Amino acid sequence: MARHNKKHEQKKSPAPKKRATKPADPNVVAQYTRKIQIFLQTTARKQLRASELANKCRAKRSMNAYLTAIEQLLHDGVILEKRDMYVLCSRDDCFKAEIVRLAGNYGFVRDEERIDYFVPGKYLLGGMPGDKVLCRQLPSREDGFPEAEVLSILEPNPEARLCGTIVPTDEGLCLVPDGMSMELHIDYQESEPYAIGDKVLCVLTERGQRHREHRVRVILNFGTADSAENCMAASIAARDVPIEFPDEVEKDAQKLADAGITEFDLEGRRDLRGEIIFTIDGAMSKDMDDAVSVTKEKDGWLLGVHIADVSHYVRANSALDAEAFRRGTSIYYADKVIPMLPKALSNGICSLNGGEDRLTISALMHISAEGDLLDAEFCKSVICSRVRGVYSECNAVLDGTASPEIQAKYAEVTDTLHMLDALTSKLEALRHRRGAPELESTESALLLDENGICVGLSPVDRGRSECIIEACMLAANEAAARLARTKGFPLVYRVHEEPSPERIASLKEMLVRLGGEPPVFDQASPRDIQKILEDNREEVWYPVINNLTLRSMAKAKYSHEPLGHFGLALRDYAHFTSPIRRYPDLCVHRILTDFLAGADKEWMQKRYAVFAEKAAIQSSDTELRAVQIEREADDCYAAEYMRSHVGEVFRGVITSVTDFGVYVTLENHAEGLYHIHDMPDGEYEIEEGWYIRNASTGQTFRLGDAISVVCARADVASGHIDLAPAEEA
Predict the structure, then answer these.
(1) Cβ within 8 Å of residue 670, ≥6 positions away
(2) Spatial separation of the C-alpha atoms in residues 655 and 704, rounded to whole Å
(3) How far apart (Å, rounded) are the C-alpha atoms in residues 52 and 33?
(4) pLDDT tens digits, residue range 653-677?
(5) pLDDT tens per residue, range 66-84
(6) Which of 45, 276, 495, 621 is the most exposed place for a label (fewest CB within 10 A)?
(7) Which of 231-245, 344-358, 506-520, 701-715 is the least confident region?
């Protein structure tokens, strides 16, 4: 393996460019703007020297207007300046984009078609999230993900923020931004007080051509970076996630909650308060937005899924709606929640609390004996949940281990619970026949003490009642999407597109290397993915194949087009069942409400086509933000837990191989890095993604291998866990 270090060459600073010094006549500027583009479009060489272009445009007649035209075209991303040359961006395969995320030594930009591109750190030009930039596409990566370089910063984000940790250096205290291995100078005289080890939020006071050349000012200090709670508070602030609700929104929500349910609210609703309907949720849940019911029919079942009618309270164009749109989703991490709606709604009048009347939208679905969805009726309704079900308690009822107290609590709904269990078996069998892959997640529950410190990691076990609710919600989501598609009215769909051929090819290659049978398909279908998982479920490498399959999948998102859902092997799918915590579900309810009121197709198109597209984009963006926060929280809290277990031995599996080491997933589902620098002495051969081999001893660290390691270090601020080899017994 060849290794080399590149020395930074000293570059001569370019001569300062001429800039417009005073306002110019707009008409003359417009004339120069047209001339500049014409000359750059028609030149055979594709680019012109600055002096040559100025001569062609006869810039001396009005140099100030000419320079103003140049500045505007550069700012708008129409032309590009390269080494005293100008080129028309449209002739140089350039495109405008926005930096959407930085992560370590790379970042991502999103173009105007909402396609994301990977950008290596050396090609970011010091860009920050929110910056408008001009880019050029590079050859795609091996995994098929498009790659680009930033050519210029068109419009810096004035609100760009960084959170990080204060560290000592030879030049004084500096900021190490989260996820970046660099030290930034701090303008300490204008900063809030800070000390070594503090977690802080900063704004940029000076930008350089590279990230390490930026200067920052501390605006908030969250306390020690050894606390996962402090680190997450800083991270959320850096992303500008709203925590508190505006006073107007809180007052409106409280007013709605205080009004309760009136006779006027019940007009036109189907009264289902006499039916056996109940909720099943987590023991700590306070925002219950779904309830279920079922009755046996001659040739199947009538399944009822009853969802809180949030759209009755959160009306279009209201302050409540604007705030819900801005937030997009509730964010759950550790023992905290940042709700989409004020508590007066989310935990109060909208939550389907046991024994209380609540307004709902019901999906009443006729399911065949084989589990097929025959037809569905949606209606505005009012229900009264018979019991506030808890997953663990329902699981005990189903498996016969419930205590007498639990049996008494669920006596009225026990028969219904068993009927739902039987129906779920049919729905699961149907899902399997469709070919939907059964991918397994490796979630862990964070166990916190009274001080909010993580003291344990517990794998999340899904019981039978969790499967029941999942199956019922999937059925209702499918029914809502099918209704919209067949009736031709707009909707916000939940879509999951096919995985890229490059990622599927990589998955097939790794499967063969691990020892599995080579798949014979070219264009992957859900059934092909299902077969890979089933054929390898009993193999020792199954956890690796499961993870590789997850990584090969496209990201699910929201769309105004019914593109289908690959992972569920469904043509029709939308999110209908969680309007308390997801804005797209609220959109679906709002659209369904007008459809149920009798609005025709043309009126629905006019009212909701643009809205559905806008809501889908916003919902996808806010969901991605929430996922990033939740994953970061998992890493920070896991590192906080592992700090108290430094020096202890753990068993794990190598789940990723890079050119700098191997990532090991431990039995408690925490993930750590065994760095190549900590491996035994020797020359190492590396095949990234597959193995690292010590050429001197033959010792190999291969993807999928079981391994014993020691927790060497855990850094809460970064969420990184460093591993070292366990001593041989």
Answers:
(1) 444, 457, 638, 641, 642, 721
(2) 6
(3) 16
(4) 998 998 899 999 998 889 999 999 8
(5) 888 888 888 888 888 877 8
(6) 45
(7) 506-520
Kindly list the distances between the CA atom of residue 677 and the CA atoms of 549, 655, 662, 663, 723, in Å, as whole numbers in the listed order: 29, 19, 11, 14, 11
- Residue pLDDT, tens place only, 548-603: 888 888 899 999 999 999 999 999 999 999 999 999 999 999 999 999 999 999 99
358 with 289: CB under 8 angstroms?
no
The Cα angle at residue 103 between residues 101 and 104, in degrees rounded to 5: 150
What is the CB neighbour count within 10 angstroms for residue 290? 22
Residue type at 15 in one-letter notation? A
- Cα–Cα separations (whole angstroms), residue 386 to 263, 302, 309, 577: 21, 18, 18, 19
User: In this structure, are strands 116-120 and 106-111 parallel, antiparallel, or unpaired?
Assistant: antiparallel
Alpha helices in 267-338 (DSSP H): 319-327
β-bridge pairing 444-448 and 454-459: antiparallel
Looking up tokens 């990691």, which residue turns up?
457
Could you tell me the two tokens for 326? 């801005």
Q: What pLDDT, on a 0 to 100 scale, did the predictor assign at position 11? A: 38
User: In a 10 Å sphere around its CB, with 0-12 CB exposed, 13-18 middle and 19+ buried, how is residue 287 labelled?
Assistant: buried
Contact assessment for residue 362 and residue 270, using Cβ atoms and an 8 Å cutoff: yes
Say how far apart CA 4 and CA 253 lie, in whole Å: 62
Using DSSP bridges, classify how beta strands 185-186 and 215-224 pair: parallel, antiparallel or unpaired.
parallel
For 83-125, list the strands marked E by DSSP: 85-88, 94-103, 106-111, 116-120
Checking 309-312 for CB contacts under 8 A at 24+ apart, the result is 309/350, 309/359, 309/360, 309/361, 309/380, 309/579, 309/589, 310/341, 310/345, 310/350, 310/579, 310/580, 310/585, 310/586, 310/589, 311/361, 311/579, 311/586, 311/589, 311/590, 311/593, 312/265, 312/359, 312/593
C-alpha radius of gyration, the chain, whole number:
29
What does the alpha-carbon distance between residue 140 and residue 147 come to, in Å, rounded to a whole number? Answer: 5
The whole-angstrom separation of Cα 627 and Cα 441 is 14
Confidence of residue 497 (pLDDT cuts 50, 70, 90): very high
CA dist 719 and 172 (Å) reads 25
Rounded mean pLDDT of 429-440? 91
- For residue 400, what are the CA distances in angstroms to 47, 418, 462, 610? 78, 11, 17, 52
| Percent of the chain at pLDDT exceeding 70 | 96
Residue 426 has, within 13 A of its CA and on its CB side, a CA count of 19
Identify the residue whose tokens are 């030594």. 105
Strand partners, 723: 674, 711
Gap between the Cα atoms of 493 and 557, Å rounded:
8
**pLDDT, tens digit, 9 for 90 and up, residues 594-634:** 999 999 999 999 999 999 999 999 999 999 999 999 999 99
3-state DSSP call for residue 319? helix
Q: How far apart are CA 517 and CA 547, in angstroms?
A: 18
Q: What are the pLDDT digits (tens) for 461-484? A: 889 999 999 999 999 999 999 999
DSSP character at residue 679: S
Give the burial class of 449: count Cβ atoms within 10 A of its Cβ; 0-12 exposed, 13-18 middle, 19 or more buried: exposed
Once rounded to an integer, what is the mean pLDDT over residues 362-375? 96
CA distance 509 to 525: 17
Give the separation between CA 101 and CA 109, rounded to whole angstroms.
7
d(CA 227, CA 198): 10
Please tell me the predicted confidence (pLDDT) of residue 44: 79
CA distance 40 to 152: 19
Q: Read off the amino acid at residue 360.
A: T
Q: What DSSP line would sit under 628-650, residue for residue?
A: HHHHHHHHHHHHHHHHTTTT-EE
Neighbour order of strands in the sheet with 700-702: 684-687, 691-694, 700-702
Q: DSSP per residue over 412-453, as a string?
A: TTHHHHHHHHHHHHHHHHHHHHHT--------EEEEE-TTS-
How far is Cα 327 from Cα 289, in angstroms, rounded to an integer?
A: 18
How many CA atoms lie less than 13 Å away from 535 in the CB half-sphere? 14
What is the pTM for the complete model shown? 0.86
CA dist 719 and 634 (Å) reads: 8
